Write the C-alpha cells for this entry.
Amino acid sequence: MRKFGLLAAVGALAMVAGAANAQFADRTIRVSNGVNAEHPVGNGVAKMTSCLATKSGGKMKLQAFWGGALGGDLQATQALRSGTQEMVITSTSPLVGILSDLGVFDLPFLFANEKEADSILDGAFGKFISDKMPGVGLVNLSYWENGFRNLTNSKKPVAKVEDFPGLKVRVMQNNIFLDTFKTVGANAVPMAFQEVFPALETKAIDGQENPFVTIDTSKFYEVQKYLSVTRHAYTPFMVLYSKQLYDRLSADEQKALVDCSAEGQKEQRSVSRALSDKSLANLRARGMAINEISAPEQKRMRDAVKPVYERGAATIGKETVDRMQAELAKIRS
Ligand code: TK8
C-alpha cells in the first residue's frame, strides 16, 4: 500500500510537471465565419473555446467573428495565407482557386448521405486533401459540416430538370457549381455569401442553394418562397489555420488546436444533424412552400449533370477524382 501511494505520488508529480512544462502563451486567436453565430458552427466554436481554455490553462482564447465581419470565405482565407489572421471556418467550394483539388467535393450528387461524407472526410481521402493545404499556406485542423444543399427561389417550385431554365441562381464562386447549374439550364451567378441576402431581397437574383440550417439561420425565408429538396451536393467546412502563424506555435499549442477542433467537430456535426429537421419544420412554419423531388426525377437530374464529372476532372485533377471514386466504391462495397 505505501509503495502504491509512493508510485501514485510520483505519477501525479510527473503530470503536474508535464502540465507545468507544457508550452502555452497568452494568445487571442481570431476566427472568421461567414454564417451567423446561431448556426451549428457556433456550437462547435463554443466547444473548441472551452476545450482550449482547459488545455492551455486559459491562455489560448478564440475570438469569433460572424456573418463575414472579417470578410467572406475566400477573402478571410487569403488573410490567413498572408499571415494577417489566424483562423477561418470556411466552405471548401470558394477555395478552388487556391487548391483546385477541393473541387472534388463540389461534384453533384457525390455523397448519398452524411455517413459517407464522414467516412471520406475523416479517412484517407480527407487526409490526402489536408496534406496538400500546407503547400498553399494553410493548415486544415479538421472538417466540420456545412451539409446537403437544397435550392430555394422566389418564382416557382422546382420538381424536375425542366424547371431550372429561367431561374437566376446564385452559386458559390466555384466552377463546378457554375457548370452544374448551367448544365440544367439555370442562369448561374457566382457570388460571395454575404451578398446573397441583399441580392435576393432586391430580386437581383431569383434563388440560391444551401443546407436547411443555413437557409434558416440566415433568414432566407424572409426573401424566398419556394424550397425544393434537391440535396444536389454536400459541402464540408474546413477549420483552417494560417500556416506561417501555426509554425510559430509550440508543439503543445498545435496539439491543443488539433484536439480541440476535433472536439468541436463532434459537437458541430451532431448539432447540425439535430437542427436540420428542426430547421426544415421552421421553414415550413415560416410559410415556405416545400417540395420533394420524386425518385425518377432525382435520377433524371443526376443523369443530366453527369457530364460535369468529366469536365470537372480537367480542373480538379484526374488522380483526385479517381481516388474519390475508388474510396466511395470501397465504402459502398
Ligand atoms: C458561409 C458560406 C456558406 C456557403 C455559401 O461563409 O457560400 O453558400 O454554403 O456556408 O460558406
Notes: The mean pLDDT is 95. Residues 226 and 289 are 5 Å apart (CA to CA). Residues 251-285 form the longest helix (35 residues).
